[in-house]
Specification:
Among the domains are: 197 residues, Rossmann fold; 65 residues; 165 residues, Tetratricopeptide repeat domain (Serine Threonine Protein Phosphatase 5, Tetratricopeptide repeat, Alpha Horseshoe). Helices cover 64% and strands 3% of the residues. It contains 44 helices and seven strands. One of its GO terms (cellular component) is cytoplasm.
């Protein structure tokens, strides 16, 4: 690399950084070119002292010279346990500068979701969804970028950022093409692992080009820097020794040269041997010795500053170091003169956090590590009290409480529980987990212990179901959890077992607890949960009396409380799956509502029952042709989760079932849009989960209905829509949909095998509803040539089951199947009957298909044209193309 002397006024650490500075300049120019320009992301990686911070300072200088708004933040080694620490540094100053009404207006619907994480709004009274908070923070940047364009965000030492910030940064990196903002990130290699490392990998993958790794200075650059600092008379041997002593590390080189100047060392070969001793005094043990030379008061002041880590104000440090105001100010000045502490640059936006900061993270680390262990622990305990007394809350004190040795302190347990509650309310369950795990080490008193375990299970539920299982089992084995809270704990344990793919154990757990209880609402709730988990298990061969037992129990229910309402919903769904009369299914569901609406405590965001039960209710309406009511419920779910900021699995499922509603209605374009959004959200949650299958299965089904066969196949291949299938029920039946897909792409034998597998699975469960598990009609069509007798038997069975179920859609679809196997006037007559039923059905795609098939069979131009119009309005491109082809070929009278 060519050695180019930095411009006047630029930092010495910019030597040999021409390419990096040029990349920054190009990115800033691209950002400033147009308000509609897409965002950019640069990532610089380098070991400590290689000039990452200086490069960000140059980025700020270049950006501000172009009129950009620049906000910055820095990770801290001792602050990684503080959730949202770095993102708050970055965005909070801009939002705090607004009036509260203005901040609410800018964040809009995201204010109540992202505001608490940013520290500008009080948290709600329920646990926040971490993904929703992340999305809210991304939305905050998008909106602020429009106001403050061109906006540049600088994040230094990202390897030390808290996990919540890195989650947000990874989400932002993937959405930068939607906003005009430049993000520049620096980090050290290594340093992090686990989830934080994965987030940083996501950031690196989204960068504009490969991550730039900073290198040490060459001997020539070190010589140039030495002479620029000490004068041109510095001889070559002295310059070479500067490079050898510092290994070309820019920070160490600058610090060493400052020491040379302070000591008035002559830069000649004869004095070069003194450089190593001078360098030792600028780092590690030498820095500590230099600190001690400033006196005990200055040392205590520096230690206190290192303990606080952030928000370092002279007054706060004085309290922690037990110094008077005058002594504290004197110490602060001594440490500034010694280049250990400095006054923050107001331009960085971090000055509001305190009036002091360490000159470099390496110095902060060295000072912190120099504190004797026992004293460090004691100072953290004092800092926790000071922070609490300052009114900063339990969550702010928690970082210090985590460092205190266990001492059977019930008050500390209470503080950590309160901090955990605050963390959960702002969407930081991992921070809550750390607090509660530390509380268990204290340990809590026996009467408190099971409650701490229960709260810990709440914190780990979304991310570590296996841990949650252990915590809840231990809590339930202790005295202390009773009444409704014990029932809640059993239900939560069963959910965790379900999410951990231990569905049979979930069923047994609930069954055993229900057997312990006396008759009443609590027992009925657990009985309902028992039936719910059994009912969604796709692999279970139904016990002969399960449906009868559920029917008998539901028959006693009037819907007077939520346990009875839940049983009515479960009975309705069970009857739906077995293909019982649709009117009776709908009547059971209606009895579970209060004035046609969900009862209090049974809402989409209520946690007492979970989403599975309400989806059973909504799907029972959807497949009994009560689409108005089903779509009302699906859309209520979507609004509820968006309003609450639940952007994870719940929102993914809501979009999937809104898509299913559109698909049932025949709005195929809208269905595809909703299902693609569901799949996008499901990808973030994780593949293989039931919600992922719901999105993928329905998207493939919708694309097939649209006639986009190749696209459906590509989706199936890309997202793993193939055996093995999930252990929970997915609607419509995945085997049936995949069988239809295989037939559509010409793999007829594979398609027949898949549909026959669907037949066996449905028979094992007693699922005889031809609308939900539509294998038989497709198999009949596939076998019409090679085995017409079996095809005819299948068509008869489909019609019998459809007439038993009794909806217009089911009967119309059965008649379409029968017509497809016939010829002549019998085919015309059956097709005409199918049109009659499907015209009365809310499912317009099926009506369009029946109308076109009848038009072809009857050679009716008017029916073909009407079918074409319906197909076009549905977005069924394949149907429309078929109708046009027949019309263009010409049809005569029947």
């Amino acid at each position: 690399m060519t050695v180019v002397r930095p411009a006047a006024g630029a930092s010495a650490s910019l030597w040999e950084r021409d390419e990096e500075v040029a990349a920054v300049a190009r990115a800033v120019d691209g950002l400033c070119a147009d308000r509609s320009s897409s965002g950019g992301l640069l990532v610089f990686r380098g070991e400590a002292g290689l000039g990452k911070t200086t490069l960000l300072a140059e980025t700020r200088r270049l950006a501000e010279a172009r009129g950009c708004t620049v906000w910055s933040a820095r990770g801290g080694e001792t602050l990684r346990s503080v959730p949202f620490n770095v993102v708050r540094q970055l965005l909070q100053p801009a939002l705090v500068s607004m009036l509260p009404e203005e901040a609410r207006e800018y964040l809009g619907d995201w204010y109540d979701i992202a505001g608490p994480a940013l520290g500008i709004a009080d948290p709600g009274d329920r646990q926040a969804d971490p993904q929703g908070v992340c999305d809210g923070l991304v939305a905050a940047v998008r909106r602020l970028a429009r106001r403050d364009w061109p906006l540049v965000l600088l994040i230094d030492d990202a390897h030390w950022a808290d996990q919540e910030t890195l989650h947000w940064l990874a989400g932002l990196a993937e959405r930068l093409d939607e906003m005009s903002v430049l993000v520049v990130v620096t980090r050290r290699p290594g340093e992090v692992s686990g989830t934080s490392a994965r987030h940083l990998d996501t950031v690196a993958a989204a960068a504009d080009g490969p991550v730039t790794t900073l290198s040490a200075l060459t001997p020539d650059a070190t010589a140039g820097l030495t002479r620029a600092t000490l004068g041109p008379h510095a001889d070559a041997a002295f310059c070479r020794e500067v490079w050898a002593v510092t290994a070309g590390n820019p920070y160490e080189t600058v610090e060493l040269l400052a020491k040379v100047q302070d000591s008035e060392l002559e830069p000649v070969e004869a004095r070069a041997g003194e450089l190593r001793e001078l360098n030792r005094s600028a780092r590690g043990g030498g820095l500590v010795a230099r600190l001690e030379e400033l006196g005990i008061d200055a040392t205590r002041f520096a230690w206190a500053a290192a303990i606080l880590g952030t928000g370092i104000s002279t007054d706060l440090v004085a309290k922690l170091a037990t110094l008077g105001p005058d002594d504290a100010r004197r110490c602060a000045e001594l440490l500034r003169t010694a280049r250990i502490l400095t006054t923050p640059d107001p331009a960085t936006g971090r000055s509001a956090d305190g009036d002091l900061e360490f000159v470099h993270p390496l110095i902060a680390t060295a000072v912190y590590n120099s504190i004797p262990d026992a004293l460090c622990t004691a100072m953290h305990g004092i800092a926790a009290r000071i922070v609490t007394d300052e009114g900063r809350g339990a969550a702010a004190a928690a970082r210090h409480l985590l460092e205190v040795h266990p001492d059977d302190d019930e008050e500390l347990v209470g503080q950590l529980r309160e901090a955990a509650s605050e963390h959960l309310a702002v969407g930081a369950p991992d921070a809550a987990r750390r607090c509660l795990e530390r509380a268990l080490e204290e340990p809590p008193r026996p009467e408190t212990h099971p409650h701490v375990l229960y709260e810990l299970a709440e914190a780990t539920f979304l991310t570590a179901p296996a841990r949650t299982i252990g915590h809840l089992r231990t809590a339930l084995g202790m005295p202390g959890l009773g009444g409704d809270q014990r029932v809640d704990a059993v239900f939560r344990l069963s959910q965790a077992l379900l999410h951990n793919d231990q569905l049979e154990e979930a069923v047994r757990t609930v069954e055993a607890e229900a057997a312990r209880l006396r008759p009443g609402p609590a027992r009925m709730r657990l009985q309902a949960v028992h039936f719910m988990w059994e009912g969604i298990h796709a692999g279970e061969a139904t016990s002969p009396d399960r449906s009868r037992r559920l029917a008998d129990l539901a028959a006693t229910c009037t819907g007077r409380d939520n346990s009875e309402r839940a049983l009515l919903m479960l009975r309705g769904f069970d009857a739906l799956m077995h293909g019982e009369n649709a009117e009776e299914v709908a009547e059971l569901c209606d009895r579970a509502l209060v004035n046609g609406r969900l009862a209090p405590g049974l809402g989409w965001t209520d946690t007492e029952w979970g989403i599975e039960l309400l989806l059973m209710l909504a799907n029972a309406y959807a497949f009994t042709d009560r689409l108005d009511r089903a779509e009302t419920l699906y859309n209520e779910a979507l609004r509820a989760y968006e309003t609450a900021g639940w952007s994870g699995g719940h929102l993914a499922l809501a979009h999937a079932y809104v898509g299913l509603g559109h698909r049932r209605r025949g709005r195929l374009k809208e269905a595809e849009s909703s299902l693609r959004e569901s799949l996008r959200l499901a990808e973030r949650v994780g593949r293989g989960l039931p919600l992922y299958w719901s999105a993928t299965c329905n998207l493939v089904d919708t694309l097939l209905a649209r006639g986009h066969v190749q696209e459906a196949w590509e989706v199936a291949e890309r997202y793993g829509f193939a055996p093995p299938y999930p252990s929970t029920i997915v609607l419509p039946d995945p085997r049936s949909v995949r069988g239809r897909l295989l037939l559509a792409v010409g793999r007829t034998k594979d398609g027949i095998n898949e549909l026959e597998a669907a037949e066996k699975a449905a028979a094992a469960r007693g699922h005889h509803n031809p609308v939900l598990v539509p294998w038989a009609a497709d198999l009949a069509r596939a076998l019409s040539t090679e085995d017409p007798a079996r095809a005819a038997r299948l068509a008869v069975d489909v019609r019998r089951q459809a007439e038993r179920f009794g909806t217009d859609t089911a009967i119309g679809e059965a008649l379409r199947c029968a017509a497809a196997l016939e010829t002549g006037q019998r085919a015309v007559r059956l097709a005409s009957q199918a049109v009659t039923y499907l015209e009365a059905s809310p499912c317009q795609y099926e009506h369009a298909a029946a109308r076109i098939e009848y038009g072809i069979a009857a050679r009716s131009v008017s029916d073909l044209r009407r079918g074409l119009d319906l197909a076009v309005s549905c977005g069924a491109d394949g149907l429309a193309e078929r109708a046009r082809a027949v019309l263009e070929a010409g049809v005569g009278p029947a």
